[in-house]
Amino acid sequence: MAALRGSVVDSLSGQPLAGVSVGLQGQPGGTATDALGNFRLNDVQPGAHTLRVSALGYRAQAVPVTARAGETQRLTVRVATTTLSLAEVTVSQPHDPNQSLAAISHIDQLLRPVNSAQDLLRLVPGLFIAQHAGGGKAEQIFLRGFDCDHGTDFAVSVDGLPVNMVSHAHGQGYADFHFVIPETVDQLKVYKGPYAARFGDFATAGAGEFSTKTRLEHSQVKLELGQFDTRRALVMLDLLGNDRHLLSKRPESAYVAAEYNFTNAYFDAPQHFKRFNGMAKYTGQLCEKTSLTLLGSHFTSNWDASGQVPERAVRDGLISRYGSIDPTEGGRTSRTNASVVLTTALPHDAVLRQQAYYSKYDFSLFSNFTFFLHDSINGDQIDQTDDRHLFGYSATYERDNQLGARSLHSTLGVGTRNDFSTLGLRHTVRRQVLDTISTGRLFEQNINVYLDETLSLTDRLTVNAAVRADFFTFDFRGRAIDEAAGVPAPLAGRVARARVSPKLNLYYQLTPAVQLFARSGFGFHSNDARGVIQGRNANVLPRALGSEIGSTFKPLPSLVVNAALWSLHLQDELVYVGDEAVVESTGPTQRYGLDLSVRYQVGSRWFADADFNYNHGRQLDAPEKANYIPLAPTFTSTGGLTYKAPKGMSGSLRYRHIDDRPANDDGSITARGYFLLDAVLAYTTPRFQVGASAENLLNVEWNQAQFATQTRLLNTPKPEPLEGIDELHFTPGTPFYAKLNVSVFF
């Protein structure tokens, strides 16, 4: 027998490429390149073969090779990027079989226009977002029948940096994605459900793993102007090019990027939204067996907000649809990140990847959810503050082995995350502090380890089995108002808990164009440390049990379809309670649903896509007809038609739809659905690009964020009762909104 070994690199930059599919033409099975771009094919029959090399976004290669008995042949394959052709998209992912949405995500990233960090989240099929605090606050996330609030049940990471914040001042799992410059994002990996072992906390409905570019194709300056005093400037500079070096004589890249945003938005009160993002990234091969990635970024933002308004205030003419009850809402936030990743090839064809990271995070949010319900003189405005240091380390050891005649890919992962934060909640009036409701110092630690095994049982059947263990320490030292006595009381304690999460997934390659899968796994989300210490959340790490069956297939060469029938049982549901600005436990829930994603290449330059997501969920311990999961969507759909050319004109017309859904337990209050159309048009040359975008083409009046909230207003024609009025409160969605942009490449 013979062996083939080698590496796959980008033809332009020389950088190694991970996850590239490598195999022999006409033979089943194959392998994928590791984190350093290396591949190995053992037990090759002597003789002439054709090596097939393919990766999403790259032109497939067919390389003639001759294998000689007892010898190991080494080669380097260079692959070049190519225009999108769905006929070349493959439905299997040998490097990571759990990424069954890889083909869909790759197509979407190339075709869907991305102009903001919010647009990046919308790249996740079936995910909807809502903004309700002037653009500076993390979005509310909806996915698979979950109102994930700001990230309680959807894990987000960027270049290995966790985005979700544990025991955050505003909500558990708070995921502020705005520190990411959209033009720097290179790849998105989507994992729905709790089936992938490397994701732990918050990965119940799923996880989104974003990575930024390792290099720039060119430097760029971009300017945008839009309605409502909107302005944006972007600069991206390639620092090394193809000839200069910094730390080694091997392939290297380095770039910096910065953006500035300002808008007053469409509300009656100007929002004065300002945001600055800056980042720098270096990627290089220090030697043949070691690569290094360095990343630094800084983000700062401040804004005013109009908040959620009650329907009766608009109906009775107290304010306009775009008005505000308390125009002094708003906030400020910042985040500084530093990360270093060292990837090393070890003996026995193993790869060790290590990452250390640090984030400094600051947050202050002024909100008024209930207006004058609790304090009829000063009002109910609150200020939530979070001053945080976040340290983390993660490492993975990956190795390909032979188990008899079958290949076994093993991954051992370890990690720790440590949050040190000073948290505060204060009663304010027009952003001036009246009194302190609670304050204290948080220490929360997560230590985790997982083992992931992927075994090719046959040439067509692959099994992925994994187990993950997480150990948490919750420590909070502070004071809070005693609800019964109405005076400050100590709030302090330390709690430790552990959670073990097994996974089992099966993948069957029925034909080269049809992959079937059956997946199951346990996951969890953690609860807020303050609630844990107080004993309000007896179930500290509520478990999720998920399962699904489905397929990714190509009924036609230019048609890619992903379908999944899924169910998820959550041991303890966290539901937002608007009248207290907190989340409360409502017990176990059960959900099931159907996800369908379709991508079709109509012609050489025309593409159509659509996502359809049906979700059914109920609270299990609540009585019939009072067991709805508030704000959880039952049907959502997105889609569009795109014209994409290598240069010259391109454009896209897209729709978003979400149906009506209960806003409270018994369905007596309804959150209203909507249907929106957006459009993008651009003209591109090698030296410049000009474009225009329009949101809400039909100028529909729609509600973006919606809550059933009990509030009390003053100065109304008829005095309102002391206990307030429970009704729908909303943040109006964007009216027709047009922007122009121009970019220069150099």
Please, could you describe this protein's structure?
- This protein has 746 residues and is mainly beta.
- Helix content is 3%, strand content 58%.
- The chain is built from four helices and 45 strands.
- The strands form nine sheets. The protein has a 22-stranded antiparallel β-barrel. The chain has a four-stranded antiparallel beta sheet with strand order 3-2-5-6, with no helix packed on it. The protein has a four-stranded mixed beta sheet with strand order 12-11-16-15.
- A hairpin with a 2-residue loop joins strand 29 (488-511) and strand 30.
- The two termini are 51 Å apart.
- The mean pLDDT is 91.
What's the short story on this structure?
With 746 residues, this protein is mainly beta.
Describe the secondary-structure layout.
Blueprint: E1 2-10, E2 21-24, E3 31-32, E4 38-44, E5 47-54, E6 61-67, E7 72-79, H1 102-111, H2 117-121, E8 128-130, E9 140-143, E10 146-147, E11 154-158, E12 161-162, E13 164-165, E14 174-175, E15 185-192, E16 206-212, E17 220-226, E18 230-238, E19 252-263, E20 273-287, E21 290-305, E22 309-310, H3 311-315, E23 329-346, E24 350-367, E25 382-403, E26 406-429, E27 432-456, E28 461-481, E29 488-511, E30 514-524, H4 529-534, E31 543-556, E32 559-570, E33 574-577, E34 582-585, E35 589-601, E36 606-619, E37 635-643, E38 648-658, E39 661-662, E40 670-671, E41 674-684, E42 688-695, E43 703-711, E44 725-732, E45 737-745
Parallel strand pairs: 1-7, 11-16
Antiparallel strand pairs: 1-4, 2-3, 2-5, 5-6, 8-9, 9-10, 11-12, 13-14, 15-16, 17-18, 17-45, 18-19, 19-20, 20-21, 21-23, 22-44, 23-24, 24-25, 25-26, 26-27, 27-28, 28-29, 29-30, 30-31, 31-32, 32-35, 33-34, 35-36, 36-37, 37-38, 38-41, 39-40, 41-42, 42-45, 43-44
